[in-house]
Design brief:
Elements lengths: L1 E10 L3 E4 H5 L6 H8 L3 E4 L6 H16 L8 E5 L10 H9 L7 E4 L5 H14 L6 E8 L9 H4 L4 E11 L3 E9 L7 E3 L13 E3 L1 H22 L9 E4 L4 H11 L10 H4 L6 H11 L8 E8 L3 E8 L1
Parallel strand pairs: 4-5, 4-6, 11-12
Antiparallel strand pairs: 1-7, 2-3, 6-7, 8-13, 9-10, 12-13
Helix pairs in contact: 3-4, 7-8
Bound molecules: oxa(dethia)-CoA.
């Protein structure tokens, strides 16, 4: 019995911030941003819109696509680095918003940009063990709240959004394997300087040594692709679709090259929403499922890399 995605959904907030808008905010050019990142615009949550609101839109769409009502959900996992509150978890707030009153366990997962792959892996284990029959897995972020809008090397990258999937047990297709890793020695390269138990060493905004992160990301993603294929005795040509974390088009292109895949087999949405951390994979997946690119029976590889460092992959038959 495998866990199969039976519905996807996504949501981007209404407000769009273009590269031209950023030209007016920091010393940059639209051309530099597109060439170095592939990003053309990003969406920003409204002042009264919290992560759980974005998540609720995406989750409703995923449940609708799966043909499931709130009463069917028996597990809610929300991957986020930008929760509404310290507690209750965003997953619990979301559960209330969706009217899931089944007593289903609900919790958040914090693995930054790898959060969705981590959450998917946990849900996969719940389904395989028989503990869940209908899991709702969401990646949702309001990164704009922790962005330093005066730091040109950083603020051009991030955006807000949410994506969700419904997972159910199935005899056909589903998640083949997931692979999760972390190495806390790199914590300093990508971080927010303060939190709850450590007083802030500066403003509570993201700091990243972009170039150093970039290099580790490319090498690490190369390695996780190899690990995932080897674990399943599969070769590169067995992969029909790459649905990568949407951080930077150059990182995505490097992984595609590693897989020997043409970019027409890679789902790219980073141009329209920037790096939305845990939301980026389910956002991209939803787009490719709804526009008919990803079809039942095809093999999909998802991979992510982010703060921690954390990284991971999920291989599945759609
Ligand atoms: O999702 C989690 C993981 N995160 C990532 O994977 C992101 C990884 N990093 C990146 O995407 C890239 O490193 C960035 C897009 C952040 C930066 O691109 P880069 O090619 O690594 O540029 P750089 O940091 O090496 O900077 C190159 C030059 C510098 O100028 P000098 O020193 O060569 O004169 C920067 O000051 O570009 C300059 N620069 C900018 N110029 C115009 C930095 N930001 C900007 C900007 N506009 N916004």
């Amino acid at each position: 019995m495998r866990a199969r995605v039976t519905g996807t959904g996504s949501y981007l907030p209404e407000r769009v911030l273009s590269n031209a808008d950023l030209e007016r905010m920091v010393e940059t050019t639209a051309q530099w941003i597109v060439e170095r990142t592939g990003i053309r615009s990003r969406h920003l949550a409204a002042e009264d819109e919290a992560t759980s609101d974005l998540a609720a839109h995406a989750a409703r769409r995923a449940l609708e696509a799966a043909g499931k009502g709130a009463d069917a959900v028996d597990l809610v996992i929300c991957a986020t680095t930008t929760p509404d509150l310290v507690f209750p978890s965003t997953a619990c707030l979301l559960q209330a918003k969706l009217g899931i009153h089944t007593g289903a366990p609900a919790f958040d997962v914090q693995a930054v940009c790898s959060g969705f792959v981590y959450a998917l892996s946990i849900a996969d284990n719940f389904i395989r063990s028989g503990q869940s029959r209908c899991a709702l897995v969401i990646g949702a972020e309001t990164l704009s709240r922790i962005t330093d809008w005066s730091d040109r090397s950083n603020c051009i990258l991030w955006g807000d959004g949410a994506g969700a999937v419904v997972l159910e047990p199935s005899d056909e297709g589903g998640i083949i394997s997931t692979h999760l890793h972390a190495d806390g020695r790199y914590a300093g390269l990508l971080r927010v300087s303060g939190g709850v138990s450590r007083s802030s060493l500066g403003p509570n905004v993201m700091r990243m040594e972009g170039n150093a992160v970039f290099k580790v990301a490319v090498n690490t993603l190369d390695a996780i692709v190899d690990e995932t294929l080897a674990a399943n005795q599969m070769s590169k040509s067995d992969i029909d679709w790459l649905v990568p974390h949407q951080a930077n088009i150059r990182i995505i292109q490097a992984t595609a090259r590693k897989l020997g895949m043409g970019m027409e087999r890679v789902v790219v949405t980073v141009d329209r929403h920037g790096n939305t951390s845990a939301a980026s994979i389910p956002l991209a997946l939803d787009v490719a499922v709804r526009d008919g690119r990803v079809k039942r029976g095809e093999t999909v590889l998802m991979e992510a890399f982010g703060g921690g460092f954390t990284w991971g992959s999920a291989l599945l038959t759609w």
